[in-house]
Design goal:
Elements lengths: L11 H7 L11 E2 L13 E3 L4 E3 L50 E5 L8 H14 L4 E5 L5 H7 L5 E6 L6 H8 L4 E6 L7 H5 L3 E4 H4 L14 H12 L7 H13 L34
Parallel strand pairs: 4-6, 4-7, 5-6, 7-8
Antiparallel strand pairs: 1-2, 2-3
Length: 290
């Protein structure tokens, strides 16, 4: 596996020594960089069950300046990591974020420009992991390749990648699909589907179900399709510990993600032209505590 990390990164041997016990690596599983590691980026290596995740300053982190992994500046199709402020709490031992024993590699796909809520699906995966306090890195990729995915798996966090049509060869697709744990495809009636990803989809998300709600009473939780869709998606991702309240919190967050002005928001992958087509009115308040 090509490990591309900054100077002072631990060797494969050091990483192996740091591998922690079974289950999710608990909070506080932090290590200092190995001997000779003096650069600032080595201050807090988070040691997951199976990876090394520098404290927000690693080769994948952008902060608007681009990252070493892509070698280019940040732009509208930036493929670097852009964690939100809560996701970044993973480096604070008290925040309770954990790393998975076996990271999931999730693709969320749709055909470009089909208004089938694929950006919703991408953020839903990201925020469900966040709500479950499981570290998850999220990315955009126009062209998905094995190498790019491998490079992003080194942090030991789950990885979710938003993409559109498959662009590579049949052989490359066959090879790639073995790496993936989940392929979530968004579809909408009357709109063309992405046939390649559809063939290997592990979960299909229907736009019509997502936007369903009781028009007489938009806050009637028994008829909010998004809640059912989120529950099924959480179960598909193996997140069985989320309560009904957790699901409602994620739904509220998704309903209230700010629409960016100007250009793409790199964390949410929302664009100024996105709108909640067919969706229900924005809830007046977050769900009350249970
Ligand atoms: C992560 O790094 C930032 C500065 O880069 C520092 O302020 C913060 O305390 C670090 N967090 C942890 C948990 O080490
Ligand atoms: C992008 O969206 C995230 C999540 O809502 C938000 O925290 C962040 O401030 C936004 N970024 C910009 C540059 O507006």
């Amino acid at each position: 596996m090509p490990l591309t990390v900054r100077r002072g990164a631990p060797s494969a041997v050091a990483m192996a020594l740091w591998i922690s016990g079974p289950g999710l690596a608990g909070p506080g599983a932090q290590g200092q960089g190995p001997e000779g590691c003096t650069s600032e980026s080595c201050i807090a290596w988070q040691v997951g069950a199976f990876g090394v995740d520098p404290n927000g300053t690693g080769p994948l982190d952008c902060h608007g300046h681009g990252c070493a992994a892509t070698g280019t500046g940040c732009h509208s199709e930036c493929e670097c990591r852009h964690l939100d402020v809560i996701e970044r709490q993973r480096w604070d031992a008290n925040a309770g974020f954990r790393y998975p024993k076996r990271p999931s590699l999730v693709i969320t796909a749709s055909r470009d420009g089909q208004h089938c809520a694929s950006t919703w699906a991408f953020n839903a995966v990201r925020l469900l992991f966040r709500q479950a306090k499981e570290s998850c890195d999220s990315y955009w990729m126009r062209h998905v390749t094995r190498e790019k995915l491998q490079r992003r798996l080194v942090t030991g966090a789950h990885v979710v990648v938003k993409t559109h049509e498959w662009k590579g060869s049949v052989e490359a697709f066959e090879d790639l699909k073995k790496m993936l744990s989940h392929v979530v495809l968004s579809v909408r009636e009357g709109f063309p589907r992405e046939e390649n990803w559809l063939k290997i989809a592990t979960h299909v998300l229907h736009f019509e179900e997502l936007v369903a709600y009781n028009k007489e009473d938009p806050e009637d939780v028994t008829q909010i399709g998004a809640l059912t869709v989120l529950r099924k998606l959480a179960e598909h991702l193996g997140l069985r510990g989320l309560s009904a309240h957790d699901i409602r919190l994620v739904d509220y967050e998704l309903m209230t993600l700010p629409m960016p002005k100007g250009s793409c928001n790199q964390t949410t992958k929302l664009w100024p032209f996105h709108s909640r087509r067919g969706g229900r009115p924005i809830p007046s308040a977050p769900p009350a505590s249970p």
